[in-house]
Amino acid sequence: MSFMQPSPVKYACSCGILNPINKLFFCRHCPKLRCGFCVCHEIESHFCSNCLENIPSSEARHKKNCCANCFDCPCCQHTLSARATTVPVVRKTEEPKEGESGAAEVTAAPSPKPSAMPTTKKMYYLSCLSCRWTTRDVGIPDQGVATGTWPDKECLYQVRFNTLMEYYQTVVLQEKQEKQEFLRRKAPKQHKFPSLTDRTGLTVSLIRRQIGWTEKSMPKPKTVHITSAEASADVEPLSADIFTQPLNLRNITTIAQRHSQPADQPTAVSRLYPQRRSLWIKRSLRCRQCEHNLIKPEYHPTSIKYRIQLFARCHVPEVVMVRCEQPLQAGQSNAILLKFTNPTMYDMTISLLDAPPPDAEVNADAFQQACRIKEEAITSSPLLKSSGVTLARQNSTREVKREVKEVTNATIVPLESEFVLNQRDDSKEFDEDVQAPIEEPKFIVWRKGNKVLLRLQFSPAAELQPGNNVTLGFCMQYTYVNTVSNTPDKEPTTHALYSRIFIHAGDIVN
Amino acid sequence: MEIADTYYSKDEYVETATGNKVSRHTVLCGSQNIVLNGKVIVQSGAIIRGDLASVRTGRYCVISKKSVIRPPYKQFSKGIAFFPMHIGDHVFIGEGAVVSAAIIGSYVYIGKNAIIGRRCTLKDCCVIEDGAVLPPETTVSSYMRYTSKGTIEGGQGNPYFVPAAMQDEMANYTKSFYEHFVRTPAPAS
Fold first, then answer.
1. Most buried one in A375, A418, A492, B122, CB count within 10 A?
2. pLDDT tens digits along A284-341
3. B50-82 exposure pattern, b = at least 16 Cβ within 10 A, e = fewer
4. Using only C-alpha atoms, what is the Rg of chain A?
């Protein structure tokens, strides 16, 4: 098996999508499995993936989400690297002397002195090591410093964009002020006796005027006038030589090249220009139900650690398929060997069922209730309701129950009893194997530390054809000890959780 | 899925005191410059060019069949110079890969037949897909995946390209690879 191959064991996420366990997260507060679709993706930090520099979000916005130092090749979109060349430079140290006496100049010129020897200077150009494009190809002069001095190509419509942006910013500001003003007038004052003048703020402005102060109104945003864009039907006529000149496709840019340079979208290769490399982000993931973080990476771009990490594989027993005992044949009973691993610090009791328990939702209800109360506390405050403004993040995403699409085509023989999966103990790895033989259920093949290999009997459906994939599904019920809890006494609580697991056992053989 | 056992014959592989398992059918040039830091598997047909510059690997690395580890060089005006190559812990180098990177971090997966150009930097927890070709001096930062199409995807916290728990996954994978790389049992006589 390769690391990159898809895992045959899939877990059903709480939203009903099947995922291997390494793509799933476990929300301890809900407590449920979450996949990439049922979490909020948020930007944690910006960084440049080439120079690995962390860039604060305000600076990133200012720099239009581009790195200040790194450039992409306009030809193949790979990163450009600076190359150094030595250019001969004639040092002019003798100049003031030469100006004094004209006779000396004539004699000095034909016999160069050692001080006037050409010295070298380092100059830099950018080169793509993937497609061999260089800045010299398009006539950009070499620079004396490797980074920072490369000129930006000014966009043709930059002035227009700036005025448009300015205009819309004032529009936003104005709307905001109007809304605030509206709210101020509308909001009922907590006075015993209602007063008419208070509603308009008339008295305040009257008094201010009598004292001789200026009006206490917000500074009116200055209005920016923009000229509306006009459509024109004037199109440059095609030049006649387009029909006569042979087309050299090597000089024409590709679609990808044009899109990577959106400001001018050049058609000729000679007008390609190095593009600033766009920044990358680190994401933090947040449960959409309870708004707790599932993943929060550290800021630093080179750090691989997490401040919060709730991977499913650290909380949910991991099921690994080892092998089937016999070649798969339709209708014939077979057995599959599965390895269960307990990743938590508490013992787990596991039972395998062939259908989800009907009361499985009840256990999680208390948590759901707590989440709902918190949510309602935010949304039901009267002021916010009246204004229609929600301060909280939009939490309108109700959990959509989706039926698990996977259909099983094998029947399993449920295990006759439940079994205990021991807690994880990293020091066990170095211990000698001195486990007292204990009475094990018959289906357990071996047990080592927090791992159990068990034998599960199943039979593929009789109507399967050779070559069909055999999928067996079961419901794993396990006890989970939650160390975070909403109960006032900070005692860890134990839940009986379940997850549905589907295993692609292989193909039916002839 | 559990890794199937890979068997090797006792005659083919040399096992060192620190647990390195090195095939005899490899080309290890300049072996005094090659440091394998323990529990490293070097499979048959691999070439490590320690004669050019020193090569140092961490623990639990897998250097698969027919892969080439070649220290990077840089061209100067007066000729070229080779630079030492560092490989971190829990690094998997796939079959037929040609690696000329300057630094490979820990928990890195390099796919089959990938070509890593000279002086590339592969940071911790990155993935190079099978058959990807990295031009020289490329940086692949953490939790990024370099695809065979030549694009970089992913990023930390993006669950679709590199698993978020890449560190644990690679540690598990290389450890179980080592544990399942076992000597052929002697025939019962």
1. B122
2. 999 988 888 999 999 889 999 999 999 998 899 999 888 888 888 888 888 888 999 8
3. bbbbbbebbbbbbbbbbbbbbbbbeeeeeeeeb
4. 36
First-to-final CA distance of chain A: 23
Minimum distance, in Å, between the CA of residue B101 and any CA atom of chain A: 14
Q: What's chain B's length in residues?
A: 189
**Residues ≥6 apart with Cβ < 8 Å to A101:** none
Give this prediction's pTM. Answer: 0.81
Cβ contacts of B140 on chain A, cutoff 8 Å: 49
Residue listed under structure tokens 């000597």: B183
Encoded tokens for B63 = 């250097």
- How would you classify residue A486: left for phi > 0, otherwise alpha for psi between -120 and 50, otherwise beta? alpha
B38 and B59 Cβ atoms separated by less than 8 Å: yes
CB contact under 8 A, B136 and A129: yes
Question: B89 touching A, CB under 8 A?
Answer: no
- Global ipTM: 0.89
- Contact between residue A331 and residue A461 where contact means Cβ atoms under 8 Å apart: yes
For residue A65, which residues of chain B lie inside 8 Å, CB to CB? Answer: none
Dist. CA A179–CA A177, nearest whole Å: 5
Does A3 sit within 8 Å of B92, measured CB to CB?
A: yes
Q: Please, are residues B127 and B109 in contact by the beta-carbon 8 Å criterion? A: yes
Q: Which residues neighbour B101 within 8 Å (Cβ) at sequence distance 6 or greater?
A: B72, B85, B116, B118, B119, B120, B121, B122
Residues of A in contact with B135 (CB under 8 A): 78, 128-130
SS3 at position A389: coil
Burial class (CB in 10 A: 0-12, 13-18, 19+), A335: middle
A364 touches A289 (CB < 8 A): no
Q: In the predicted model, what is the mean pLDDT of chain A? A: 78
Q: Do A283 and B156 touch (CB under 8 A)?
A: yes
Under an 8 A CB cutoff, do B143 and A304 touch? yes
Name every chain B residue with its beta carbon within 8 A of the beta carbon of A323: 2
Closest partner residue to B137 (CB to CB) among A129, A285, A339 is A129
**Average pLDDT taken over every residue of chain B:** 92
Q: From CA A207, how far away is CA A504, in angstroms rounded?
A: 81
- Report the distance separating Cα A399 and Cα A368, nearest Å: 11
Pairing of strands B98-99, B115-116: parallel
- Chain A hits for B3, Cβ within 8 Å: 1
Q: How far does the CA of residue A338 sit from the closest CA of chain B (Å)?
A: 9
- Least Cα distance to B164 among A32, A293, A448 occurs for A293
Instruction: Report the C-alpha gap between B133 and B148 in whole angstroms.
Output: 7
DSSP state at residue B80: E
Contact B139 A50 (CB under 8 A): yes
User: Between chains, do B141 and A9 touch, taking CB under 8 Å as contact?
Assistant: no
Q: Please report, as a single letter, which amino acid is at residue B74.
A: K
d(CA A285, CA A42): 6
Question: Which residue bears the tokens 């029909």?
Answer: A243
Instruction: Please tell me which of the candidates B136, B159, B165 has its beta carbon nearest to residue A313.
Output: B165
Contact B124 A302 (CB under 8 A): yes
* Cβ neighbours around B86 below 10 Å, total: 17
As given in the structure block, the two tokens for residue B92 are 């998997």
CB contact at 8 A, A215 and A205: yes
| Alpha-carbon span A292 to A308, nearest angstrom | 10
What is the pLDDT at residue B130? 93
